[in-house]
Amino acid sequence: MYKTNLTHYVAYYFDELIVSEIRKKNEGALRELYKTHYPMIVNLVCTNSGSEQEAKDIYQEAIMAFYDRAQQADFILTCKIKTYLYAVCRRLWLKRLHAKKRFHGSIEETESFLGVDQEVASAEEKEKQFDSMEDALNKLGEPCRSIIEDFYIHDLSMETIREKFGYTNADNAKNQKYKCLQRLKKLFFDGYKEIE
Amino acid sequence: MIAEQDLLDRYAKGTLAASEAAALEARMQQDKEFKERVEKHLALVKALKFYGERSAVLKTLDEAHREIEMPVKTLPLDTPTGWKRYWMTAVAASVALISILGTLFMTRSLDTKQTAIYKELGRKVEQIRKSQKLMMEDMAEVKEKPNPRPESFAGTGFLISSGGYVATSYHVIRESDSVIIENAKFGALKASVIFSDPANDVSILKIEKRPDEMAQPLPFTLSKVEASLAEDVYTLGYPREDIVFGEGSVSALTGFKQNPNAYQVSVPVNPGNSGGPLLNTRGDLVGVISGLQTETLGAAFAIKSTVLVDVINQVSVDSASLPLVLPKQNAFKNSSRVQQVKRWQDFVFVVKVYKN
């Protein structure tokens, strides 16, 4: 009795700790979380006509959804992280199977976890956004991609970028960045529309 | 346009001075196109930020995944050089040698074990062969016993007269001290030999104290004509404790060594059948079983009933005793064989002979 209680509390505090650390964007905590529940999802997918690669894909998607959710200011942990991940993964996997025409049941009827629908929908929306940006950046090519990433993502100054890419003056660098962003704008919004 | 982008970049990053930001927002209120451009720029920057964050997280996840998979660090093996290489070869060679020798040793030990079993088996087979031979010899001896005159202490006899006279084979009662006849109906009765014809192998016995139930006339006759070749015949006898029925047909009208007083019959007989009645389909007596020929299969001999009648006629009966009157009428000639046998078995006795 004592032991079960202890493990229960340990699990509870583990979850709390993970959430607070993830909110601080602690990579180590995220890695721990990832490693803790991965076997469960591998089991879920592999025992339901899936491969380990597919398990990895949906697990990462679910972890990302949880990560995004944890970043929200109003986030409260209403269930164990394990339960959340399992429910989301299950839903995602059923959807994949449905797409592959290997699952003919109704997905809605098989889900009892409240709110998982929204979770999956927002996770998928973000995934789509991410994929379209990745797609656009891939099409953009070098050195534009690096310049854009350095300036907008890594917040490097134009002076650092000028040095890094060997432009003789700041205007050249600015001109290059301008052209690159214009192209990316076109690629991203066109591609995004295509997906929609 | 480059200047505008620069402005928007600084606006997105929040590094714009308060006055500049106010001016920009005021322009957005007036210029719809400009507002659209600003919003698009902000959306793009936001998407880029999102992408950056997400790819960083994904990178972390991939790292974690690699940690799960735990790629086993394979240390490159140093290829052994010089004597080390030969030493390893030597080890490998000795391992091979030991296993070969071990296998050989084990198989050989198995071999010897199998030979031992085989020898034992062989002895057993030898024993079996011996005992088989003994058994064969025993059987051969038994086969020799039922010669034409089997020396048996027991035989068969049958009633020929309601006066208590019984016919049997001479060789059954030969050299006897006392004779007891027995069957299911009358039980054991003491009998005495009143006449013997060794030449024809026939003897007549008289029951000393005839039971009263025996007084009624016998339902069969003693055939005074010779049986025909191929006539169906059957016999009843006591080759063992119980009465045994056997059937066949008349194979020849002469007996052993062309004996004209006997028939050859194809009726299965055994020691103990001697003295038994040979009956035809009417249930009449046609002969007395006397013996069989050892060399010929299924060849038994029976003294003809005509001879038996002749012998009976020679018997001089004491006038004080019951007369030896032969039955005159066949009462069951039209009955089935089963019915005939049912009646006949009451008149057939096992003859037990006690000798000194």
UniProtKB/TrEMBL annotation, chain B:
It comes from the Bacteria. The keyword Protease applies. Coiled coil: none annotated. SUPFAM superfamilies: Trypsin-like serine proteases. Pfam families: Trypsin_2 (PF13365). Gene3D superfamilies: 2.40.10.120. Keywords: Hydrolase, Protease. This is Trypsin-like peptidase domain-containing protein. It comes from Chryseolinea lacunae.
